[in-house]
Design a protein that fits this description.
Blueprint lengths: L14 H14 L5 E2 L11 H12 L12 H15 L8 E4 L1 H13 L5 E6 L4 H8 L3 E6 L10 H4 L7 E7 L11 H13 L3 E5 L26 E6 L12 E5 L1 H12 L7 H12 L3 H22 L14 E2 L7 H4 L4 H12 L1 E2 L1 E2 L9 E4 L4 H14 L2
Parallel strand pairs: 1-10, 3-4, 3-5, 5-6, 6-7
Antiparallel strand pairs: 2-8, 7-8, 9-12, 11-12
Helix pairs in contact: 2-9, 3-9, 4-5, 4-8, 10-13
The protein binds pyridoxal-5'-phosphate.
Amino acid sequence: MPGFARRLDNVLPSATIAVKEEADRLKREGVDVIDFGPGEPDFNTPENIKEAARAAVARNLSHYLPTLGLLELREAIAADYRRKHGTDYAPSEVLVSCGGKNALFAAAMALFDHGDEVIIPAPFWVSFPEQVRLAGGVPVILETTEEAGFIPRAQDAEKLITPATRGIILCSPSNPTGAVIPDDELSRWADLALERDLYVIFDECYERFLYDGRSHASMARHAARLRDRLVLASTFSKSYAMTGYRIGFAIADRRVVSAMATVQSHDATHASSIVQAAALEALKGPQDDLTGMVSEYARRRAIMVNGLRSIPGITCLMPGGAFYAFPGVAGLYERLGVSDSFGVAKALLEKARIAVVPGEAFGINGYVRFSYALATERIETGIARLREALG
Ligand code: PLP
């Protein structure tokens, strides 16, 4: 065998997938595992969106599209951003992609060179550092703490900046912590990016999942001054329960989008034409399903977090957004006879038949991620099992 490309040497396979595989193996053996692992809505795709996909098949929307995507969809996305954030992006500044992941990957490939350093706050979404590495760049991790609500502060990033620093990747609401970066902090990050001549990639894939009356603070609010250095990335996966459809997008200055489109033109070409028609309906059709899903998640969040907090040895912040709880579990090490969160995740799968994702996957030890995108009864049973397993 001739061996693999060196660029893979430092790239880790997704640790969230490793846990899922073990949980799936147990499920195949007939074990009733309560799976708090998946990062996706448990709801079905709304009917009007499915119907739009069927109609696209029927009307033979089956030919190649422009790399950037279906014009009507890009117009709808640009209009949506104008309405929500007052931005002036044109449809030619929208790149429709195969999920938010591909948009973020195209950004990393287009913007980061060999040796470029990219600041990524931890806990981070698993793919951020690996995408930077695949592009040849170097992830530079900015640690955040539970005490500070896991909010990354621009002021703390200053000491990490070197002549090789080229960009910053921020995510709000955050996967895995659910932390929401307030607008004044986003403003400080924007100042820093301008002062130090850096790109800002802002992942807002969970923008619709906000609780307690919060509204979404987007870096788009600072788009006017960050015009030539901002990439906004989002997705239909979470908001419209369309994870398997693989559809997301990025918005950026024409020159940046064009560089990203060059990358996409040589890998995916474009997102599926059928799926783009479905995404157009998602944006333009009724939004009631979305509102219903978010209020259901709010209910589950309370059950999840209160349940976790009721267990001695566990601490848990109330997440402001997304659909994850990210409890501190270092207080369980002794009881479980383990020394890290990977050990906690393994022990919980063995002893309580519940699957969670260890913090190491997100660049932090001492925490695990519970998704509450599952039925209330399952959350309650999971908490009961946890309590029982911990004595
Ligand atoms: N960004 C974050 C923070 C995520 O959690 C995910 C999915 O889990 C994505 C991006 C990518 O989602 P998709 O590629 O399904 O749009």
